[in-house]
Amino acid sequence: MESRVEKVNKDFQDRTDVERGLQQVAGGAPHEAQLMEEYGREQAEYLRASRKRETTEDYEPLKILGQGAFGVVRLVRRRADGAVLALKQMPKKLMQNKNQRNRVLAERSALSSLDNAPGVVSLYSTFQDGDNLYLAMEYLPGGDFMSHLIRLDILTEDVTRFYIAELVQAVDEVHKRGYVHRDIKPDNIVLDRYGHLKLLDFGLCTVDPLAGATDSQKEKHNEKLQRGELQTPRHAKPGAPPVTPGRDGAADGPAKPQHPGRALLKSSVGTPQYMAPEVFRRSGYTASADLWSVGIILFECLYGGVPFSDPSNNPYTVGHKVVNWHKFLRLPHPSRPQVSGEAVSLMKGLLCEPEKRLSADAIRGHPFFKGLRWEKLKDMRPPIAPKLDAPGESGSASARKKGADLNLPQAGGSSNLRKDLDFVGYTYQREAEQKKPTVEKVVGSSGSTGAPPVTPKGSAAPPQQQQRGRH
């Protein structure tokens, strides 16, 4: 049985904040009585929606979308309204490991907080039974960005400009909501049916230690980084082979850069080729680390591979190169001299130390994006047009060859108190949460006039800042 202690406590605090806010707006009876009556109706509707418990019986499986070490993803149709979604199933016995448990809980927490964030995959619900965790998400049929990079190899600057702009917008939205993604890479970027970009896989997501910080606090943080006060070097594994610039013949030398291998990209601990130097140093890094990853993807789009690599895929060798990026980064890269000066300038502004790295606003104002109407990105026709299959078209034959079962487990599963306690607070329903009363909703529904709505203190604050400093 799933415990609801944490949710009950949070709902109680939310109710207290809303009631206090309504009292401030009303300014006394009878106005207050009218608002509280409306609030009571909305709160009752929210509680009814929250009590509903989803099970696998609520979904019709259509085909297998993918299978990995920690579960399977199916294309499903929600029986209640016919919505076609992607449903991830993860066995609890594989999630018992502390790191994996933290990842699934972090992804659920981040995606629920990022509801309706532009450029971020939508989470509809999470639920569980005795044996499995389930996560129902928006279905994005356009394919992951890495597949398109491998197919096209090199993108034109016009195509690159569009997708890097959309990526910057999505990453900046995540940062504005108080999070650092920490695993920005082409495999975690997926196109929707129209070709627009969306971020997914928030399992390594964490709270930005500078979320809500003043400019003065950010400046002091950067000063500490420059003085090395936040640094605990861990550049390479003892005994790792020495590395010299250009010796591997990949991105560091004149040879054409290569895309990282698929196996390495599916590492459960992040992907070294896209990680910022301050991450390898175990520095007290911030959201700026994600923008380094954007710079790596920009390089990969224009040169056909990543700037820091190793033929044997040794993560310690890659990490050494990233930490010593000033010795190994070649810009402009000789493999493609036709890359414009504006593109090279932008890469240099992103692939640098964090205190000198461009902010999202500075990126938007960079000459590489001259003439781009950022506010119209979502209205533009994307340069990559995905080839789509019909939602109900069966892909189960190939999936069965891999051992995946199209059918969903029967609702229920064996009860295990330990497994249930490990995933307290996992359940989430978007539709129920959208019914939760707020001051603005209640005032709007009641049609009341008077003082402007007052947002209860703390309701718009960034996520609780745990682990301030080092991640």
From TrEMBL:
InterPro entries in the record: AGC-kinase_C (IPR000961), Kinase-like_dom_sf (IPR011009), Prot_kinase_dom (IPR000719), Protein_kinase_ATP_BS (IPR017441), Ser/Thr_kinase_AS (IPR008271), Ser_Thr_kinase_AGC (IPR050236)
Biased composition (Basic and acidic residues): 216-227, 430-439
Domain AGC-kinase C-terminal: 370-438
Biased composition (Polar residues): 462-471
Domain Protein kinase: 59-369
Catalyzed reactions per annotation: L-seryl-[protein] + ATP = O-phospho-L-seryl-[protein] + ADP + H(+); L-threonyl-[protein] + ATP = O-phospho-L-threonyl-[protein] + ADP + H(+)
Superkingdom of the source species: Eukaryota
GO molecular function: ATP binding; protein serine/threonine kinase activity
Keywords: ATP-binding, Kinase, Nucleotide-binding, Serine/threonine-protein kinase, Transferase
Chain sites annotated for binding ATP: K93
Biological processes per GO annotation: intracellular signal transduction
Protein name: non-specific serine/threonine protein kinase
Stored SMART domains: S_TKc
PROSITE patterns: AGC_KINASE_CTER, PROTEIN_KINASE_ATP, PROTEIN_KINASE_DOM, PROTEIN_KINASE_ST
Renumbered residue ranges of the record's region Disordered: 215-268, 383-471
Signal peptide start-end: none
Native organism: Chromera velia CCMP2878
Annotated family: Belongs to the protein kinase superfamily.
EC number(s) from the headed UniProt entry: 2.7.11.1
Keyword Cytoplasm set for record: no
